[in-house]
Design a protein that fits this description.
Elements: H1 7-42, E1 56-60, E2 63-67, E3 74-75, H2 80-84, H3 89-101
Antiparallel strand pairs: 1-2, 2-3
Amino acid sequence: MPIRPSDNEEEYFTRRELERRQQAEAERAATEQAAAQAHRKEAPTMKCPKCGADLVEVDYHAIRIDRCPECDGIWLDGGELEAVTGRDRSVLQRVLRLFDQAPGPPRH
């Protein structure tokens, strides 16, 4: 005659299996999180549009701008040109005039 486990034994093994699965899930989530974090650290944030080198952020008058160490290009995010030239409006006007004089489709 087969031996049937008592309700207490069945409950014990069911609980142990649930704990094992929860532990395995927690370990998997921690491994995935660590891998994603390592990938973010390794992946460069931006590439230079001109030469393709990794851009580095530098401080310029309390504004973080992107600079290319290879071609010395400076790349500005939206609003940064105004912030950089905010102290001297004539500089901003001169820069904008360069865009107006550039060949190509007219600006609207």
